[in-house]
Predict the 3D structure of the following.
Amino acid sequence: MRTFDLVVVANRLPVDRVVDPDGTEQWRTSPGGLVTAMESVMPGRDGAWVGWAGEAGEAPEPFVENDMYLQPVALSAEEVEQYYEGFSNETLWPIYHDVIVSATFHRFWWNAYRAVNQRFAEAAARVAAPGATVWVHDYQLQLVPAMLRELRPDVRIGWFNHIPFPPVELFAQLPWRQSLVEGLLGADFLGFQRTADAENFLRACRRLVGLPTKGDTVTHHPHGDDGEAHTVRASAIPISIDFNGLDELARTPEVKARAAEIRSSLGDPEILMLGVDRLDYTKGIRHRLKAYEELLRDGEVAPPETALLQVATPSRERVAAYRNLRTQVEGTVGRINGEHSPIGAQAVQYLHHSYPRSEMAALFLAADVMLVTPLRDGMNLVAKEYVSCRHDLGGALVLSEFTGAARELHQAFVCNPHDIEGLKQTIMRAVRAPEADRRRRMRALRKRVADHDVQRWAQRYLEALASAPERPERQGRHGKSA
Ligand code: ADP
Ligand code: F6P
C-alpha cells in the first residue's frame, strides 16, 4: 500500500463513477464547491484523496488522476440512504443552514454516520505516511478527526467546514451534539468560512460540553481528566477559487465566442440575468424567481429585452425536500413563461444539467447581472467565479448578505433575499447602474478575489494546521504577517 505525506479525506472523490445504461463506465467531475476548490490545490502536491465514488456498492480500485492518488471508500445502498441522504443531508444540512426546512432525527441514521466515519478514518489511516498531514473536509465527516487520532496519534489532523457552523441554539437540538463536538476535537486545527462560524463552534464547546475556551482555542482531555490535555484551534480561513485559471479561461477566443453565441441564441437580450446553483433550498432560487416574476408583472423588465437564464444543477435527488424544490421551481418557471413569454423568446430559460468549466466561464462572461441569492451559504464560489471571469469589467453581481462571500465582496449589490421588495429594488439597481459604477465595483471585486485565491487559502490553511494550536507566524503567499 502506498502512503502519502498529505491526505485529503472528503465524502466525495473529485470524480464520480457513472455507469451508462449500455454498461460503459465514465468518470465525471463531482458536484459542489469542495471539489472545485480542492481540485485546484491538490495537483503537484503528490497527495492522496480518500472519498466515495458516488454510487452504492463495491469500491473501485484505487487509481491516479490529475496527479492525485484516489482511494475510494465503499458505501452500501443502505449507507447511502442513512449516512449520506439521511444523517448528512436531512439531519445536519438543515440544522447547519438555519433550519430552512425542518431537520429529521433518527438514531439508526446516526449509527450509520458513525460506522461510515469509522470506515473513512480507517482508510485515511492506511494511506497516511508516518507524521503525515491529514486534511478532513466538511460536515459529513465530523467524527473522523477523533477516530483517526485513536488509530494514528502520529499524524497531524485538520478539518475544514465548507458550510456554516450553526448557532448554539440550533446545534443544541442535535441529540448527538456532544459526540459531534468530541469528534471534531480530535483535530489539531478546525477551519471555518467565517469568524462567526468558528465562534459558534467554540460556544458549543463551552455551553454544551462545558469545555474551557481561551481566545480561539479549546482544551479538552480526550482520555479522561487524568489523561493528557489536547488544545485545538478553531478559526476562519475563507475558501476561494482559482482566479488566474478562470481569468485565463475566460480570455480565450473560444470562451468569448461561446459567450456571444449564448447571447445571440437567447435573442440578444439587452439584459441577460443569470443564476447558477445546485438545486438546493438553501440557494434562494424560489425567492429569486418570485422577485423576477414580480418585476415582469410590474413591467419593470420584459422579454425579449430581458431574459433570465437559470442553471440548476441536479443535487441529492432522492431527498424529499430536494424533489419538492424541483417540482416548485419547474412549476414556477413554467408559469412565468406561460404568462410572460412572447413567441420566440423565453422570460426564463431553465437548464437542469452539469456543464464543463469552459461553458460555465462562457455563461459568466455572457451575463449582465449575476443573481446569487442564497438564504444561507458557507461561501458561494459561484459569486467569486463570476467576478474572476469578468476581465472586461462588465457585469454586476447581486449577492445575498447570508453568504460567506458577502463578508469579502463588499462592492457587490448586496441584498436580503427574504425581502422580496428589497431584492427587486437591488436587482433593478444592478440593471440600471451606470457603466462607470459597475466597472469600478467589478475592478474592486476582482482585486479582492485575485489577492485571496484558492492557492492562498490552501497555503494559509496548511500553515495554520502545521503550527496549531499556536497561530502561524507568517501567513499568505507573500509571507505577510496575519
Ligand atoms: P455548493 O458547494 O453549495 O454547490 P458553490 O457555489 O460554493 O456551492 O460551488 C458550486 C460549484 O459548482 C462552483 O464551482 C460552480 O461553478 C459549480 N457548478 C454549479 N453548477 C454547475 C453546473 N451546472 N455545471 C458545472 N458546474 C457547476
Ligand atoms: O460545499 C458544500 C457541499 O455540500 C459539499 O460538501 C458537497 O460535496 C457539495 O456541496 C455537493 O453536495 P453533494 O456531495 O451532496 O452532491
